[in-house]
Design a protein that fits this description.
Elements (H helix, E strand, L loop, with lengths): L2 H9 L8 H11 L3 H8 L3 H8 L7 H11 L3 H4 L1 H5 L13 E4 L2 E7 L11 E7 L15 E8 L2 E5 L2 E5 L4 E5 L4 E5 L5 E8 L7
Antiparallel strand pairs: 1-2, 2-3, 3-9, 4-7, 4-9, 5-6, 5-8
Helix pairs in contact: 3-4, 3-5
């Protein structure tokens, strides 16, 4: 076996993510030949051909060079990769947060575009004593569900009020004005789910 064939054998593997069709479509749309792309990327024409046919799983540096040569958005390339990883894990010390006055939101789940109408976002809401949320003051589309994890709360919904203790849960249409108030003597913590996502944290 020649050295060239040995090198090809080393990179031929089961291809878990099929980048090839996307690369080929972009190349053809731009009117580039295999030879032109290979030359600009500094790789062999046969390698580009094998990648396009999903016969080769390219090394990440090769994939990045090809994306650069063809001016391909990496989000477009890796859409399939995200679909292949259905479990989203956010470590406790890596949560994105946003403050709304003195209320702190810790993101527990990022909305996924691919989930469409089934997308959700969720937070741990931290409200100081005598504090309250503001973001639902005018209402919005969708539904919300919350569970009181620590402290005492009062939900203001339209002209109604509901007192909530630790362990209580509440759900409602988010289209009406609503705010959550801390009525206890310690920081109020609540687990909150919103659908469809309002993308409060960008």
């Amino acid at each position: 076996m020649s050295e060239g064939n040995e090198n090809i054998e080393k990179v031929v593997r089961r291809v878990p993510y099929r980048f090839g069709e996307k690369i080929r479509k972009v190349r053809e749309r731009k009117g580039y030949t295999l030879k032109m792309v290979a030359s600009r990327a500094g790789v062999s024409e046969s390698l580009v051909s094998q990648i396009e046919r999903n016969r080769v799983s390219p090394a990440i540096d090769t994939l990045l060079v090809l994306a650069d040569v063809l001016d391909i958005n990496l989000e477009y390339l890796f859409e399939e990769y995200r679909r292949e990883r259905p479990v989203q894990v956010i470590k406790a010390d890596e949560r994105r947060t946003i403050a709304e006055d003195d209320v702190l939101y810790e993101e527990l789940a990022k909305p996924a575009e691919s989930d469409g109408k089934n997308a959700v976002e969720s937070y741990v809401v931290n409200i100081p004593v005598n504090g309250h949320t503001h973001r639902g003051s005018y209402g919005h589309l969708g539904r919300e569900l919350g569970v009181i994890v620590q402290g005492k709360a009062r939900l203001h919904y339209e002209n109604l009020t509901f007192d909530l203790d630790k362990g209580d849960s509440v759900s409602f249409s988010a289209s009406s004005p609503h705010t959550l108030e801390n009525t206890g003597s310690e920081t109020l913590k609540a687990f909150w789910v919103v659908t469809p996502p309002q993308r409060f944290i960008q």
